[in-house]
Write a structure and sequence with these properties.
mainly alpha, three-stranded antiparallel sheet, elongated, 5 helices, two-stranded antiparallel sheet
Length: 169
């Protein structure tokens, strides 16, 4: 009977349970951190893919019209809507990540993977922090995402912001 009691009596003591819970806690926290990193990387990749498609569509728009669209308020949505009138642009943008370009209550939008609006910097801008970038692109407009924080931050060349720019791809 002693043998049976020794087999059935085995359970974890309070310190052992505390250790198991601590190990599980750190495993879950570590997995969550890795998951957040993977999700952010996927969103950055999806946004870069969208900006690449927008740049390619801009090239097609220029080839068809011999000019770039002009914007007065840096919003990309009206520009994308204008580019969709060119058949080659429509084909390129059809391959963009689905939820990022569309219409919301009949108003067009162009968002990055974090849900923030994409900014369009026209080629004829006179704003000093943008003129250097436009010159580096040979006069081609730039599409830009604010990145995960939703703040465009410092726009000077070489700044350490988390923005994703079409001219950086």
């Amino acid at each position: 009977m002693n043998t049976l009691r020794a087999i059935t009596r085995r359970s974890a003591s309070l310190p052992e349970l505390a250790l198991i819970c601590t190990v599980l806690f750190f495993a879950v926290v570590g997995a969550r951190g890795m998951l957040d990193h993977v999700v952010d990387e996927a969103k950055a990749h999806q946004t870069a893919e969208l900006l690449d498609n927008l740049n390619a569509a801009m090239d097609q728009y220029y080839a068809a019209n011999k000019t770039y669209p002009h914007s007065v308020d840096f919003r990309a949505a009206p520009i994308v809507t204008e580019m969709l009138h060119v058949e080659q642009c429509k084909e390129l943008l059809a391959h963009s990540p689905a939820p990022l370009i569309g219409k919301d209550n009949a108003s067009p939008y162009c968002r990055d993977a974090w849900g923030n609006p994409i900014r369009y910097i026209p080629s004829k801008t006179v704003i000093p922090q943008f003129t250097g970038r436009i010159q580096l692109t040979g006069g081609k407009p730039i599409f830009e995402s604010a990145g995960p924080d939703g703040d465009f931050g410092d726009d000077t060349i070489g700044s350490q912001s988390d923005n994703i720019r079409g001219d950086d791809l």
